[in-house]
Amino acid sequence: MTGRIRFTHAEVAKMLEVLRDLNAMPKRPIIQGLTDDLNASPDRSGDGQVPVQYSQVHTWFQNRRYTQKRRGERPPAQGKMLPTGAEAQHPASYRVQSSCPSNSESQSGNASSDCGLVQLEAKSPTNGAWFDVAAILSYRFSETGDQEIQVWFSGFGAEEEEWINVCKSVRLRSLPCIDTECVGVLPGDLILCYQVRKEQALYFDAHVLEVERRTHDLRGCRCSFLVRYDHDHSEEMVPLRKVCRRPSADVKIDIVIDDSLAEPKAQKSHKRMDTNPDEVTVVPGPPNQGGRSDKLAAPLLITPDSTHRDSVADEQMGDIEAAPKGEATSKAHGDKMNVGA
DNA sequence: TGCCTGCCGCCTGTAGTGAG
DNA sequence: CTCACTACAGGCGGCAGGCA
């Protein structure tokens, strides 16, 4: 008899990767190998840890495939789901790399396990809110020479893709704060804050004006933060769960793009550009062997366990599904939080 | 009035079952 | 063996009531 277990985000990321690679139900040897692999990790091999069973991994794949199918999702891209309704193919024509110091112990050649791959957020020109970038579809250069990328926002359909100025409106994703990180939120800090209004609930840049510290209880941080939103200068008190901190600066990002899929005018070689504040860079990548000529949805290669969704949010948030952007529900930025279920 | 706590409902993830 | 579906447990947020 096997008890009910809950897979960690690292495990889910690993299984998602298998699912993405195979795009089919894994065979028994693969599942068995994956089971052994998971059980070899510190999460499962330590004292008092509950090892996962083959049947549990198998069931997970079954359920995952079924739920994806039911929701009309495509196989996940490196631990991140593509936007709902994404029907295009998704060769790895683009990928985002950060040029952080090489402290990575790349596991078994898995590109997603090192620090070189990052998650981005982009500011929608439509409403000025920040959304997680789920996939970069294409890129181009504007008349002014600025780099622009066409993105899918996480949780939105392909019909809502937008062109984003890389320099001005693309950056590393903000990180939701865990309870113990409230002490790091100080007056004057730039944060990403979840603003809930009757008509919409979106993430906007904001600055911390005041911090009201309170004793934490079983539910975690009870502190409150007075913030002023940059876009409308409104002020409000928010709990920590609505606060996402900006990652440390001085991180360079490379968006590696397959030239064969980019627009003709984007045929440039390794162009570096500075952005705010994380210096996002777009560079052509190696030729794609796929040989497709139409524009394709290309997933970001993102680090499943490197950012909020899999580290911070692991303890405090659930998984998120897509929501229409117009509704602007909490799910619109699901990777950061799940408010107002 | 604000804080604390418990209850309730919803949602999600995992397990179980039957059909093909 | 996979797929489709359901059952169930747990987490989370909202809300109301009690209390200082």
TrEMBL record:
Residues 3-72 bind DNA. It is found in: Nucleus. Residues 1-71 form the Homeobox domain. Residues 322-341 have a biased composition (Basic and acidic residues). Residues 65-113, 264-341 are annotated as: Disordered. One of its GO terms (cellular component) is nucleus. The keyword ATP-binding does not apply. Coiled coil: none annotated. The keyword Oxidoreductase does not apply. Residues 98-113 have a biased composition (Low complexity). Keywords: DNA-binding, Homeobox, Nucleus. Its main location: nucleus. GO terms for molecular function: chromatin binding; DNA binding. This is Homeobox domain-containing protein. It comes from Triticum aestivum.
